[in-house]
Amino acid sequence: MKRREFINAALTGSIALWAGNKLDGSAIKLLSLMPGAPQSADSRIEVLLDEPIGKIAPEIYGHFVEHLGGVVYDGIWVGENSKAPNIGGIRRSLVEAMRRVKPAVVRWPGGCFADSYNWRDGVGPREQRRRRTNFWVDAPGWPRGAPDGPWKYDPNHFGTNEFIRFCRLIGAEPYLAANLRSQTAQDFYEWVEYCNSPANSTSPAEMRAAAGEREPFKVRYWGIGNESWGCGGNFTPEEYAAEFRRFTAWVPRYGVNLAFIGSGPNGGDLDWTRRFFAKLAERRALGGMWGWALHHYSWNVSGGRTTDWFQGKGDALNYTTEEWYELLREADRMESLITDHWSVMGEIDRQHRVKLVVDEWGVWHKPGTEAHNTHLLGQQSTIRDALVAGLTLDTFHRHADKVAMANIAQLINCLQSLFLAHEDKFVLTPTFHVFEMYAAHQGGQSVRTIFSSPRSSYTRNGQPATIRGLSGSASLHDRQLILTVTNPDLGQTRETEIVLRGASIKEVKVATLTDKDIHACNSFDNPSRIEPKNSQITPRGAGTLVFSFAPASVTRLQITLA
Ligand code: AHR
């Protein structure tokens, strides 16, 4: 089934099919081992310090929050009278953990929900807000016995002000998604007015002030709809281009450098990108767009047996060796999705003024491992998901010149979450640990790396298959180099010679995330089962070191240069 059909299913409450993305294969060419490598080393990483790619935008470390299942209610918003410790209704443990990963930006309120959301329902005195039917109320896949509650009938206790407060508490910029399917451009302008108009200047500003927010929020990032090819209105690219122009024309600025993000393609749909860009360019409207949103989920572990949206998925915890590699193969498609869309965008936007915003990415397993039955699309997480996170973030770094923002889906209790929570219980997932390890890359200069490592072999639908072996990225921060590496191989430790071209190494600190049991997870009962281990290594020569990357691992090397 196509994603468009899935979205229709969510809209209508019926079950349909979502066609899978075609496998594009790896874009990285493996180089043969260089002479002079240590006898035992089977892999080599060369870091080309003098070949910069671009600055790693901190916004690549963005998050996504939708009114979906347990994300907002039970995840973020517990209410002031909850037994879960909270800061004015917002889960305290979440705020504290988020600060550790340095989140640059959070997207809200959806997702598909955004195109059914009336922002006015979520402002004003909380007790007077209207309870509204949630977009996902009839979605296929609610866990058995899920009762009615705020996840189905939204009391709007978490609205614009609460979201902005959450962003402030965690130190992130807000990214709001406008409702393009079921509201007008006027409604959008007025949301901008509510958020950004100066104190005492407008009635919405007075309303904002009455709720304790005199000063404008200065929201910069605005998504113009979501998945407009599907739940966001089932538009053709040409129709969506007309709507995009209407929504973004003459939006009041209030001194804010507004950044509009267009609703981009579903995975490899190059036609959507090409036709939208062509249509916008016809009216010279490309300049009004800051970012082009790409969505990619890794879900099909069937080894090519099916592209059915439901049949193709596997379990979050119980998976075979084949499913391990298949999920990583799916995640590795990110590389070609970025380069393919980038090249199509460049056919029209020759100077590449518009950047890519991967504002939904992550793994999507079949239901059954959610922490609570109100957590629609909730799932557990293992070291396999951690590898997907590391591999994907490394891909973004390697394309730091193209990717301006990315938002993992979704923050808590849903899909590839960093956290699971229910009432006063809270746990960090392996994906959280990757985000914390990788946060050191933020703001650094991404430099070119050459990875040379044997491919990992497995049996795919009865046939021999491979995926790429070690992969990763490097970034430079004054005299410190951050090198992150994933080893997808389930059996092979990769003894690796690491060469820094044009630098000497003083000190190396290591953090590694792995687990002998690839099905293990962190749970409310055992929250620290998977955590990174720290160590230190001594360089072999001036600019060379040798390191063994454990099977099924994510590693960060913090290299201080002499
Ligand atoms: O993240 C879950 C859903 O996936 C989002 O609401 C939608 O945009 C996408 O299809």
Name the strands of the widest sheet in spatial order: 23-22-25-20-19-16-1-21-24
Could you report the average pLDDT, rounded to the nearest whole number? 93
Radius of gyration, rounded?
Answer: 23 Å
Helix-residue proportion: 10-25%
Please state the overall shape, judged from the principal axes of the Cα atoms.
Answer: globular
State the low-pLDDT regions, or none. Answer: 3-38
Counting DSSP E segments of at least 2 residues, the number of strands comes to 25
Classify the beta-strand content into a percent band: 25-35%
The biggest beta sheet reads: 9 strands, mixed
Q: What are the salient characteristics of this protein?
A:
disordered N terminus; eight-stranded parallel β-barrel; alpha/beta; 562 residues; binds alpha-L-arabinofuranose; nine-stranded mixed beta sheet
Describe the structure.
The chain is of the alpha/beta class and 562 residues long. Helix content is 23%, strand content 26%. It is built from 11 helices and 25 strands. Strands 23-22-25-20-19-16-1-21-24 form a 9-stranded mixed β-sheet, with helices on one face. An 8-stranded parallel β-barrel has the order 2-5-8-9-10-11-12-13, surrounded by 6 helices. A two-stranded antiparallel ribbon has the order 3-4. α6 packs across α7. The longest helix is centred in the middle third of the chain and has 16 residues. The protein is globular and about 70 Å long. The N terminus is likely disordered. The site of alpha-L-arabinofuranose has 11 residues, from loops. The site of alpha-L-arabinofuranose (AHR) has 11 residues, from loops.
